[in-house]
Amino acid sequence: MSIVLQLAIAGLSAGSIYALVALGLMLAHKGTGILNFAQGELVALGAYIGLFFSVVLHLPYWQVFILTLLVAAVAGALLERTLIRPLLHAPPFTVIVATLAIGLMIKNLLRIWWPESVSTFSSPLDGLSFQVGEVNINPQYLWITACSLLITGMLALFFRKSLIGKAMQAVSQNVTAARLMGIRVSLIFPLTFAVSTAMAALAGILMAPVVGIQAEMGNIILKGFVVAMLGGFTSLIGCVVGGFILGLLETFGGAFIGGTFKDVTAFVLLMVILLVRPNGIFGSAEARRV
Amino acid sequence: MPWYAGIGVLLLAAVVLPPQFGSYYHYLAGLTLINVILAVGLNLLTGNAGQASLCHSSFMAIGAYATTYLVTKFGLSYWLALPIGGMIAAMFGFALGFPALRLRGFYLAVVTLGFLELSTILIQQLPDITGGVRGIATPRPVMFGYVFSSDLAFYYVILAVALMAIWVAYSLLHSPTGRAFNAIRNSEAAAQTLAVPLARTKLIAFMVAAFFAGIGGGLFASLVGFIDPLEFGIWTSVRHIVFIVVGGLGSILGSILGAVVLTVLPETLRGFKEYNEFVFGGLLLVVLMTLPGGLAGLGPLLWSRVSRRSGSASQPVAKAQDVNLR
Known about the structure:
The structure holds two protein chains of two kinds.
Chain A (H helix, E strand, L loop, with lengths): L1 H31 L6 H18 L4 H24 L7 H22 L16 E3 L2 E3 L1 H23 L1 H11 L1 H6 L4 H27 L9 H10 L5 H21 L2 H18 L14
Antiparallel strand pairs in A: 1-2
Chain B lengths: L2 H14 L6 H26 L7 H19 L3 H25 L2 H21 L1 H4 L5 E2 L4 E2 L2 E2 L3 H23 L2 H11 L1 H6 L4 H27 L1 E2 L6 H14 L4 H17 L7 H15 L3 H14 L19
Antiparallel strand pairs in B: 1-4, 2-3
Helix pairs in contact in B: 2-7, 2-8, 2-10, 2-11, 2-12, 3-4, 3-5, 3-10, 4-10, 8-10, 11-12, 11-13, 11-14, 12-14
């Protein structure tokens, strides 16, 4: 029993990281129509920004946390203004290749700036662990899950209640109509990318103490895609639930079936979704113009 | 000078010149021609049929490992193992083509990315066949007791295969199937109304591209003599995409130009090896945004500017915008 609970906690924390990556992908895709293949590198970028504040400037963890999110948001807005804007009306192939190129450039720069292969920064939860009954619980995992749930909840409130959030939703539904209602679309797009990049950076700094910081962190993007598709690329809840499903499947499959299973879960799940329910668990069928 | 005379001169140079240079240049020339094969294959799929693929390096890996396995474990002749490796890669291309029938644009790219990830993991997890992360050695081919151990001898083998590949691609593009490729890129709906079998055409495109990649992979394994999973990651796939985007989408000449320029250039600028990915990424962005026809589109573009007859310049090259993956 205790092993099941322990695996569940690990699975949920992995799943919430996937959910954050998926959330960033989905926000940008819904808001601007761009599927960002550089999202994984933005996760790595967030982790390296955290590394900079923590290891180079020696700031305490909570300051690192807030500053990283802010810097990532600014970086996201800048990215939109400079490189994403010209892609807005480009066909998918151009968008795919261009964002892949952006990701490649970010990865290369990170590797040059910080040549150490794997590094990490300290968090106040390092080395802590407490026991509940027979279960050994790593508070790091609880913190990851709680923090990402909290921030996702705040994001949901932001979209429901705030004027800017509502404007972003309006733009994602219909750009022209939103513009006619007096929404400044040219401000909403960078804002969308700022939020999306901040989500990626959050995933980066949350997972950094667990898996270590390296330029290859960006490979997580595939899991983000799978989760976003599971959620149908439309809903916040879909992303979170999808993330938990993938995280739990991987952890339990890895423990009971074998390590290879853990690595191929994402791909198998991707195939199953695309063949059985291409619009995800929470998505609805989409009408397409021929 | 008629165009075929130009090709004749180039061919003569490719046959006569290499012995004048050192072994390193033979190796580099071999690598370049392998990249030409890979680029020509990918361009048929992406540039002509309009299907984005991020897993060209997976097919290359399948060809490379299959060829190696058949030669080392079954003692099969390299000349038999190489085409069989290509066919095995084509089978995987066929299998991947099936989900692709239902998918467009972004979703297709995500699936191919997933396949790339899967293939990299499987190479590492099946060390009995692939040598795992430690890699595996591939011998050079033998013919009538003669071992192609010198890079120059093997260069001629690669040259022959590359010429064959270019000829096959050229014939294919001028066949009904090739025209069907271009038709489904331009508009799937319009192509269907003209009785182009959509599913079959897409599957053929995937199989042909995978076959080319598999052959390229088999040659690559033997040229380098050693393969490991790091060779076949996303970076290799993106490099193939850079070849065809910079060279010119949908153009065989473009594939050749892109592969040649972008294989030789990084070798001559070895001091910047660290910045390789950055430069390739930047180049990709610049070409995508400013030069949609790539290098192959540059000639007609300049010619139309010079002659001031904008209508007269033929446009044999697909633009990036034409690769319409809705």
